[in-house]
C-alpha cells in the first residue's frame, strides 16, 4: 500500500495527499486544512487510479480544462479535452460571469448544482470565494423554491434516499454510499421544510445545501459529509398528484411504523459509521423533532439545528446585547413571539444559562420567560390542549390574546421573535416596549444613528 501511495504522490494520480499543497496544475485544495478527517481512510478510488473518460465524469476528481499536459498523458485524456489548458482561477472567472447573467435565482441554483455534479472542487472554489453572493443561491432563500420544484429540476441524485421500501435493509442501503469515513450526516424527513411545510422527498435540497455550507464555511471535506432524506410519504396533495414528484406516492407514515423506521436508521448509522458520527436532524415537524432529540440524545451524537443551533446563536446575540443595555440574564424578563422548535429551543437554552449562572433550578428560571403562540400567551389554563414541548412554558397567568397586550402586561425587557408570521413587531409593539424600557429606547436610537436603520423600520411598519 505504501508503494502505491508513493507512486500516486509521484504523479500517477491526479490527487495530491499533502493537505498543504495544491494539486498539479494550480488547482487549490479549497477545503483548507481538515484536522478532523486527516486520519481517516482515503476513498476507495485512491487504490485504483481513475483515468480517461471515467475520470472526466467523476465530479470528485474532474478538473476540466485545468488538467495539465502531463496529467493528460498520464490519465489517457488526450483527445477527450480541447487542447487549451485553463487554470482554475480562469474557470472561476468564466463561471461567475455566466452565473451573473441569470436574473432568476432558481436558474443560478440549477447552474451551481450542475457545476457540483461535474467539478466539485471548482464548485467549492466559487462558493468560498463568492460566499456573500452565492450563499443565498445554494441555501436560503433560493433552496426553498428549489425544493418546491425539485422534481422538475431533478437531474442527478444527490445524497442518499431511504424510504419505507428499504425497511429491514437500511444497513445495506448505507453501504451503497461510496464513502466510508462519514463524520457528519444531515437528515430530514421533509415534513417541515423551512416555512414551506411538507415537501416530502423533495426536501433533499436542504441537507445538500446545509452540508455544502459546512464544507465552504466550516472546512469539512465533502467526502466526510452525507445528506440523507428519509422518505415516509407526504401529506402534500399537490405533490402526490404531481407527475414529476420523485418520492413515495402515499400518505405519511406515523406512529409505530415511523418510529421503527427511524430506530432502524439510527442503529444502522451507528453500526456503519461508528458512534462518533454527528447526526443533525433537519426540518422535522415539531411533534417528531423534540421526540427524536429526547430519544437519541443519550445514545447517539445528535443535534437539531432548528431547536439547538438557532438557540445558541440567539443566546450569543442576547449576551452581546447585554453589554449595551446592561444587567445580567437573570435580571431581565423575556417575551417570545412564536413557540415552535426555534422559540421553545431558544427559551430553554436561555433558562439553562440563567440556571447555570444563578444556581437556581431550571424550573424556576423558566418563570422569567413567557411565550406567545397563535392563540395568545401560553398559560396554565391552556395546558391540556398544548403540545408537550410547550407545557413547560405554561405559567400561572390570565389569558392574553395577542402580542401587543402581552407586551403591556408582561412588560418584558427583551422581546424575541421566532414566528414565521411577518410584520408582527408593529409600531405599537415597539412603542409599548420603549414606554417602560428607557434603555431599549436609547439602544434603538443608537442603532438607528450608527447603522442607519431608518429604512429598515420603514419596511417593518
Provide a descriptive summary of the structure in words:
A hairpin with a 2-residue loop joins strand 7 (369-373) and strand 8. Helix 5 packs across helix 6, helix 5 (105-118) crosses helix 8 (142-148) and helix 18 (403-410) packs parallel to helix 19. This protein has 21 helices and nine strands. The chain has three domains: 2-99, Hemocyanin, N-terminal domain (Up-down Bundle); 139-300, Malic enzyme, N-terminal domain (Rossmann fold, 3-Layer(aba) Sandwich); 308-460, Rossmann fold (3-Layer(aba) Sandwich), CATH 3.40.50.720. 34% of the residues are buried. With 461 residues, the chain is α/β, with parallel strands linked by helices. The radius of gyration is 25 Å and the shape is globular. The strands form two sheets. The protein has a five-stranded parallel β-sheet with strand order 1-3-2-4-5.
Briefly, what is this?
The chain is 46% helix and 8% strand. With 461 residues, the protein is α/β, with parallel strands linked by helices. The strands form two sheets. The chain has a five-stranded parallel β-sheet with strand order 1-3-2-4-5. A four-stranded mixed β-sheet has the order 8-7-6-9, with helices on both faces.
What is the secondary structure topology, with strand pairs?
Elements: H1 2-12, H2 52-56, H3 69-74, H4 88-99, H5 105-118, H6 120-129, H7 131-138, H8 142-148, H9 150-153, E1 160-163, H10 170-175, E2 184-188, H11 205-218, E3 225-231, H12 237-240, H13 255-273, E4 278-281, H14 286-296, E5 302-304, H15 305-325, E6 334-337, H16 341-358, H17 362-365, E7 369-373, E8 376-377, H18 403-410, E9 414-417, H19 427-435, H20 438-451, H21 454-460
Parallel strand pairs: 1-3, 2-3, 2-4, 4-5, 6-7, 6-9
Antiparallel strand pairs: 7-8
Helix pairs in contact: 5-6, 5-8, 6-7, 6-11, 15-16, 18-19
Amino acid at each position: 500500500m505504501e508503494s502505491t501511495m508513493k507512486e500516486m504522490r509521484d504523479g500517477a494520480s491526479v490527487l495530491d495527499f499533502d493537505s498543504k499543497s495544491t494539486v498539479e496544475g494550480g488547482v487549490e485544495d479549497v477545503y483548507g486544512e481538515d484536522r478532523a478527517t486527516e486520519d481517516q481512510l482515503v476513498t476507495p478510488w485512491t487504490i485504483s487510479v481513475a483515468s480517461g473518460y471515467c475520470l472526466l465524469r467523476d465530479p470528485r476528481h474532474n478538473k476540466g480544462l485545468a488538467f495539465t499536459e502531463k496529467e493528460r498523458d498520464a490519465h489517457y485524456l488526450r483527445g477527450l479535452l480541447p487542447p487549451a489548458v485553463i487554470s482554475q482561477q480562469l474557470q472561476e472567472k468564466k463561471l461567475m460571469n455566466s452565473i451573473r447573467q441569470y436574473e432568476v435565482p432558481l436558474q443560478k441554483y440549477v447552474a451551481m448544482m450542475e457545476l457540483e455534479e461535474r467539478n466539485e472542487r471548482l464548485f467549492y472554489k466559487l462558493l468560498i470565494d463568492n460566499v456573500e453572493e452565492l450563499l443565498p443561491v445554494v441555501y436560503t432563500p433560493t433552496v426553498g423554491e428549489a425544493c418546491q420544484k425539485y422534481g422538475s429540476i431533478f437531474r442527478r441524485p444527490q445524497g442518499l434516499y431511504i424510504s419505507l421500501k428499504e425497511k429491514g435493509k437500511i444497513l445495506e442501503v448505507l453501504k451503497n454510499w461510496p464513502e466510508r469515513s462519514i463524520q457528519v450526516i444531515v437528515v430530514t424527513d421533509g415534513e417541515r421544510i423551512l416555512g414551506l411545510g411538507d415537501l416530502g422527498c423533495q426536501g433533499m435540497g436542504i441537507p445538500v445545501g446545509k452540508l455544502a455550507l459546512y464544507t465552504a464555511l466550516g472546512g469539512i471535506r465533502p467526502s466526510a459529509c452525507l445528506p440523507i432524506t428519509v422518505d415516509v410519504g407526504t401529506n402534500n396533495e399537490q405533490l402526490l398528484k404531481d407527475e414529476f414528484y420523485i418520492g413515495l406516492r402515499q400518505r405519511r407514515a406515523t406512529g409505530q411504523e415511523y418510529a421503527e423506521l427511524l430506530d432502524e436508521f439510527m442503529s444502522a448509522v451507528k453500526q456503519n459509521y461508528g458512534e462518533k458520527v454527528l447526526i443533525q436532524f433537519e426540518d422535522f415537524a415539531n411533534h417528531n423533532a423534540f421526540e427524536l432529540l429526547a430519544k437519541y440524545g443519550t445514545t447517539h451524537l445528535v443535534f437539531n439545528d432548528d431547536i439547538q443551533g438557532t438557540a445558541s446563536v440567539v443566546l450569543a446575540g442576547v449576551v452581546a446585547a447585554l453589554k449595551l443595555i446592561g444587567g445580567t440574564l437573570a435580571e431581565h424578563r423575556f417575551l417570545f413571539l412564536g413557540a415552535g422548535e426555534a422559540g421553545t429551543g431558544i427559551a430553554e437554552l436561555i433558562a439553562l444559562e440563567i440556571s447555570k449562572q444563578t444556581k437556581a433550578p431550571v424550573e424556576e428560571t423558566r418563570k422569567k420567560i413567557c411565550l406567545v403562540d397563535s392563540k395568545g400567551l401560553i398559560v396554565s389554563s391552556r395546558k391540556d390542549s398544548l403540545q408537550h414541548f410547550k407545557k413547560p412554558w405554561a405559567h400561572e397567568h390570565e389569558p392574553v390574546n395577542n402580542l401587543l397586550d402581552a407586551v403591556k402586561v408582561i412588560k418584558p425587557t427583551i422581546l424575541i421573535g421566532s414566528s414565521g408570521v411577518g410584520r408582527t413587531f408593529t409600531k405599537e409593539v415597539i412603542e409599548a416596549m420603549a414606554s417602560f424600557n428607557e434603555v431599549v429606547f436609547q439602544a434603538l436610537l443608537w442603532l438607528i444613528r450608527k447603522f442607519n436603520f431608518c429604512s429598515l423600520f420603514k419596511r417593518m411598519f
